[in-house]
């Protein structure tokens, strides 16, 4: 009689690691370079380390995710799950890869909380089976008057929409999700913390042998130790730290009333230049707030704020004409992008192209040289962006070929575009204005 194969042997035999996750901008989504997200990148790295393919299953239903793991349909749940005592009874959790807080979200005109007792006599909704629900169940033991609704399969975006629409007074959200979503909900705020340092971890079937679990443990411990996890956190969250309520409200207003006028042009330019149209739209928003008549103090004009020199290079006659501006801006970005060495992987190559677009290719190369001299990776945007501000310091500029430059400005420029791009990706993927709305029973 042949022995039962171990969990690791099953993975290796089929040549793929099956991972179930939740589609969201903190876990798994699609951008200009394909599938990405914090959970996806970690899972892909683990699959690569095993020499197998990664197959993704998707679900917003936490009960279904648990079912799939216990049944063995998926090997690992990498779904932004908090390791709680209740969940540990049915799933085996790895070491955490990220710590998050649990926050209460309210409308700006709603009462600010000082404790969970403030939720009494208000409508509160959270995802069914979530760690947020577990926190509120424990709070009910202290105060039986506290009531809340568990919504099956609800996403954070759907619950935020209920709060924004006034159908619900409060919901709970993880701090990493809130940091990415905040600008899309400028009339909401999360200013009360229910719990801190909640561990996000992968979950496996506790009835399996330990082979796959121990391999996952070793991998997560290694990527934390070698800085991979920190770089991923910086990649996905490092550009969203700065929040401006006025800017967020302006963006949402312009998303509704200005972008629709030019969306088809951005899509056409995206097809011709082979860039995601949302990236081109994000650049245009950073440059002109989608205003074709915009003029800077230095004389650059139009939606893409082209200089006279760039307009001549790209053969356009009217920088304020939306079609000419968008098409020329996209073609020029493609030209700049082509200068960046092919060996540089995405998305770093695109972020470096944007920095070059802003500060000049020579200064970008100086920053990459400085990065290498200081022991960093000149092909990684997270490392290079730390050196760009040094170009403004004489002690460094004097040692470099192209001299002094406002490299810090290029870092801010890229950060803003990445932020707008992320918001556009999320807004389109979820069709926020219509399809994220759900009804409470």
Architecture overview:
A hairpin with a 2-residue loop joins strand 2 (29-31) and strand 3 (34-36). The chain is globular. The protein has 441 residues and is α/β, with parallel strands linked by helices. The strands form two sheets. Strands 1, 4, 5, 6, 7, 8, 9, 10 and 11 form a nine-stranded mixed β-sheet that branches. Helix 11 packs parallel to helix 14 (322-339) and helix 16 (361-373) crosses helix 17. The model has no long low-confidence stretch (mean pLDDT 91). It has helices at 7-14, 38-50, 62-71, 85-88, 131-142, 156-164, 175-181, 211-225, 228-237, 245-257, 259-273, 277-288, 308-314, 322-339, 348-359, 361-373, 381-387, 394-397, 407-430, and strands spanning 16-21, 29-31, 34-36, 53-58, 76-82, 92-93, 98-107, 124-127, 149-151, 170-174, 188-204.
């Amino acid at each position: 009689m042949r022995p039962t194969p171990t969990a690791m042997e099953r993975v290796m035999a089929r040549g793929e690691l099956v991972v179930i996750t939740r589609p969201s901008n903190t876990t798994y989504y699609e951008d200009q370079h394909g599938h990405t997200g914090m959970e996806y990148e970690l899972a892909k790295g683990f699959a690569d380390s095993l020499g197998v393919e990664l197959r993704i299953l998707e679900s917003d239903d936490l009960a279904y995710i648990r079912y799939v793991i216990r049944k063995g349909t998926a090997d690992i749940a990498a779904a932004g799950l908090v390791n709680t005592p209740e969940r540990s009874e049915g799933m085996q959790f790895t070491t955490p890869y990220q710590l998050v807080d649990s926050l209460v979200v309210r409308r700006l005109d709603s009462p600010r909380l000082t404790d969970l007792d403030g939720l009494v006599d208000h409508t509160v909704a959270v995802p069914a089976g979530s760690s947020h629900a577990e926190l509120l169940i424990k709070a009910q033991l202290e105060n039986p008057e506290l009531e809340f609704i568990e919504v099956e399969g609800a996403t954070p975006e759907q619950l935020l929409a209920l709060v924004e629409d006034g159908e619900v007074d409060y919901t709970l959200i993880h701090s990493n999700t809130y940091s990415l979503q905040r600008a899309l909900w400028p009339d909401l705020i999360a200013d009360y913390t229910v719990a801190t340092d909640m561990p996000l971890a992968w979950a496996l079937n506790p009835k399996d042998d330990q082979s796959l679990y121990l391999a996952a443990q070793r991998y997560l411990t290694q990527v934390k130790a070698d800085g991979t996890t920190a770089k991923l956190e910086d990649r996905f969250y490092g550009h969203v730290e700065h929040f401006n309520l006025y800017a967020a409200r302006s963006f949402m207003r312009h998303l509704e009333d200005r972008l629709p006028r030019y969306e088809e042009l951005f899509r056409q330019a995206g097809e011709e230049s082979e860039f995601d149209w949302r990236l081109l739209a994000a650049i245009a928003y950073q440059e002109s707030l989608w205003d074709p008549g915009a003029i800077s103090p230095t004389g650059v004009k139009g939606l893409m704020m082209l200089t006279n020199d760039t307009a001549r290079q790209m053969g356009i006659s009217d920088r304020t004409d939306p079609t000419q501006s968008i098409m020329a801006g996209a073609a020029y970005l493609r030209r700049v992008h082509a200068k960046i060495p092919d060996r540089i992987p995405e998305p770093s190559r695109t972020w470096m192209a944007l920095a070059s677009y802003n500060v000049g290719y020579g200064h970008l190369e100086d920053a990459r040289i400085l990065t290498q001299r200081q022991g960093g990776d000149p092909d990684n945007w997270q490392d290079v962006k730390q050196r760009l501000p040094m170009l403004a310091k004489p002690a460094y500029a004097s040692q470099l070929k192209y001299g002094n430059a406002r490299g810090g400005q290029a870092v801010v420029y890229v950060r803003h575009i990445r932020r707008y791009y992320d918001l556009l990706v999320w807004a389109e993927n979820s069709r926020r204005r219509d399809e994220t709305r759900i009804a409470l029973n």
